[in-house]
Amino acid sequence: MAVVSSSKTPDITLYTGQTPNGIKISITLEELGLPYKTHAIDITKDTQKEPWFLEINPNGRIPALTDTFTDGQTLCLFESGSIMQYLVEQYDTEHKISYPKGSRESYEVNNWLFFLNAGVGPMQGQANHFFRYAPEKIPYGISRYQNETRRLYRVLDKHLKGAGTEYLVGNKCTVADIAHWGWITAAGWAGVDIDEFPLLKTWDERMLGRPGVEKGRHVPTPHRMKEILKDKEAMDRAAKQASEWIVRGQKEDAQE
Questions:
Q1: Is the pLDDT confidence value at 5 over 50?
Q2: pLDDT at residue number 138
Q3: Integer Cα distance of 234 and 29 in angstroms
Q4: For the whole model, what pTM was predicted?
Q5: How much of the chain exceeds pLDDT 70, in percent?
Q6: What is the CA radius of gyration of the chain?
Q7: C-alpha pair distances (Å), 86 with each of 10, 62, 83, 90, 101
Q8: 112: closest CA among 132, 84, 86?
Q9: For residues 157 and 178, what is the distance between their CA atoms, to the nearest angstrom?
Q10: What is the DSSP string of 67-126?
Q11: DSSP code of 219?
Q12: How far apart are CA 66 and CA 38, in angstroms?
C-alpha cells in the first residue's frame, strides 16, 4: 500500500460484497492507496440484516464502512456516495481522485457522482431486476428501465464526446468515474449493449486498465462479470441463483 499523506491514520473496515456498489468503495480505497480491512457480507444469507450489521447501517445494505474519527470514536458510514465523499475529504489530500474543494472541477465531480446515485444506479438496478430476477417477465417493466438506462448512457456518451476528455471531469479519474464503473461495465447484465455507446465503451476499457480498478474490483471475491456475460449458461445460472434470494428477501421485508 502507498504511504498515506494525511495526518489522520486510517482504521478502516469495509463491509462489502461483489456488487457494483460494493466494488466502488474498494476501488476508491485502492486508488487512494489506503490500508483497510475487509469484512465480506454474504447478502444471499441476509447477513446485512443481522443486528450487528444494522448497528453500522440501519438500512441493512452494503457497502458500509467504519473508521476511527478524529475524536477517537468509531464512525459508521453507509450509502456509497457518502462513503466516497468521506474518503476523499479525509484522505485525498493530494487530490489523486478528486479536485481541490471549492474548485469548478470539484462541483462538476459532484454533478456526476449524484447523477450516478440518483440515476444510473437505481435505473440500471431496476433493469437488472425486471430483466434477470423477476419471477414473471413483465415487458413494460423491462422496456421502461432498459430504455431509461440507455438514455442515461447516452447522456454520458455525449458528455465524453463533447468534453473531449479521458474521464468524466477532465483527464483525471475521480470518484465520479469510479462510482459509475461497476455499473457501466455490467451493462450487458441489464440487457444494454455497450457497443451502442462508443465513447463510454472506450472509457470503460480505460478504467479497467487502471491498477487500482483492477485490484479493487476483486474485493471481497473475484469480479467475473465480463466472463459471465460471454457465457449464456453462466448468465442463466447466476440469474437463477440471485433471483431465489432476491424474491425471498422481498417477501421477508414485506412481513416486517
A1: no
A2: 97
A3: 30
A4: 0.94
A5: 97
A6: 18
A7: 12, 16, 5, 6, 13
A8: 84
A9: 16
A10: EE-TTSSEEEEESHHHHHHHHHHHH-TT-SSS--TTSHHHHHHHHHHHHIIIIIHHHHHH
A11: S
A12: 11
